[in-house]
Amino acid sequence: MTTVNLQIDLGGLIMKNPVTVASGTFGYGAEYADYFDVSRLGAVTVKSLSLEPRSGNPPPRIVETPAGMLNAIGLQNVGIDVYLKEKLPYLREKKCVIIANIYGSSPDDYAALAQRLEAEGGADAIEANLSCPNVHDAQQTRGGSLVAQHPEQVVRYTEAVKAATTLPVFIKLSPNVADITAPALAAQEAGADAVSLINTLIGMAIDTETRKPRLSNIVGGLSGPAIRPVALKMVWDAARALRIPVLAMGGIMCADDAIQFLLAGARAVAVGCASFRRPDAAIKTAQGIELYCRKHGIADINELIGAVEIS
Ligand SMILES: Cc1cc2nc3c(=O)[nH]c(=O)nc-3n(C[C@H](O)[C@H](O)[C@H](O)COP(=O)(O)O)c2cc1C
Fold first, then answer.
1. Could you tell me the CATH number of the domain that includes residue 141?
2. How many CB atoms lie under 10 A from the CB of residue 49?
3. pLDDT for 84-114, tens place per residue?
4. Ligand 1: which atom is nearest the Cα of residue 68?
5. Looking at the domain assignment, is residue 173 inside a domain?
6. Is residue 105 exposed (0-12), middle (13-18) or buried (19+ Cβ within 10 Å)?
7. In a domain? residue 3
8. What are the residues whose beta carbons fall under 8 Å from the beta carbon of 134, sequence distance 6 or more?
9. Which residue has its alpha carbon closest to ligand 1 atom 26?
10. Residues facing residue 232 across a β-bridge
11. Which domain holds residue 258?
């Protein structure tokens, strides 16, 4: 059987296959070591890292929904120091390609994180999660807007990260906008090397017995198969509008789902909360993409990217 070239170039990050995992659904990699060799993934994307450790929101912070889940984890993470000291050695020892997702409350926070990650060999690419509260929004304490909802702020944050590192910079955007191409074009204009689409869709659930919201945070982010058609459409829109590549995520459960995103124009895909249901979902997705290519006589995965046929 002929071999298939699965290697892709995601904004300067070379991945041996187009499959990574979505930030926050795969810990720091070692958590999944019992299920498969995580270095077989195109890259491992780690949980959002902040300058200081964060304990996140109080429970309950996860609710099951039809075809998905709502989460309000609140960006709990070990912080950059513990990541570099305790989590990174495993990923480096395994020779994983690392996408470090970062989160802060100002452009300076993002710049500081990116600078440290590069200086200490903590990442091969940076993914800046801009689904963070917009500090210029007076409403923010009552569930105000996100940075990713304001193209002019996407420019400020992206420029700050780009100025702080020579690593490829991916800007992770929110689907909670009317037109995804506006923040995506803003990221491109500010020098982003790729955009990551999509983060979770904001939603809520109410317990009818107690009449209280089912999440302590009241609202949370919807992920899983329920959001896949929305994500696919946004990836398709963004891929047509941009010169830079798209890293796609949102409800990818298997290879067929991932291939839809590649056909829609994504250069790479990330498996998210599917790993909670099947810990080997990401590697099975990569294997399934290879099988699909063989079956369809595709010698190079790059032939598939954007190849949706629309008459
Ligand atoms: C439990 C959970 C935690 C998450 N944490 C983060 C995070 O720390 N940073 C981030 O950028 N996205 C985070 N996300 C969003 C995912 O990376 C992804 O964008 C989203 O879940 C859509 O993919 P999926 O439907 O395949 O899960 C989280 C999602 C879930 C379900």
1. 3.20.20.70
2. 31
3. 999 999 999 999 999 999 999 999 999 999 9
4. 25
5. yes
6. middle
7. no
8. 140, 144, 145, 146, 147, 149, 150, 153
9. 272
10. none
11. 8-56+76-200+224-303
pLDDT of the residue at 142: 45
| 8 Å CB contact between 43 and 125 | yes
Q: DSSP letter string over 110-130?
A: HHHHHHHHHHTT--SEEEEE-
pLDDT in tens, 162-181: 999 999 999 999 999 999 99
Which residues have a catalytic role annotated?
132
The answer, yes or no, to whether residue 141 has pLDDT greater than 70, is no
Q: Per-residue pLDDT for 215 more than 90?
A: yes
**pLDDT, position 71:** 95
Q: Residue 311's pLDDT is what?
A: 86
| Count: domains in the chain | 1
| Distance (Å) from CA 226 to ligand 1 centroid | 14
Report pLDDT for 136: 67
2 located within any domain: no
CB atoms within 10 A of CB 289: 25
| DSSP assignment string, 1-25 | ----B--EEETTEEESSSEEE-TTS
> Ligand 1 within 6 A of 101 CB?
yes
Q: Is the CB of 224 under 6 A from ligand 1?
A: yes
Q: Write phi, then psi, for 170 (nearest 5 degrees).
A: -110, 135
In angstroms, what is the span from residue 23 Cα to ligand 1's centroid?
Answer: 5
**Residue 60: is the preceding peptide bond cis (ω within 30°)?**
yes
Does residue 215 lie within any of the structural domains? no
What percentage of the chain carries pLDDT values higher than 70? 96
Assess whether pLDDT exceeds 50 at residue 208: yes
CA of 25 to the centre of ligand 1 (A): 6
Can you tell me which atom of ligand 1 is nearest the CA of 249? 23
> Mean of the pLDDT values across residues 138-147?
65
- Of ligand 1's listed atoms, the one at least distance from the Cα of 69 is 31
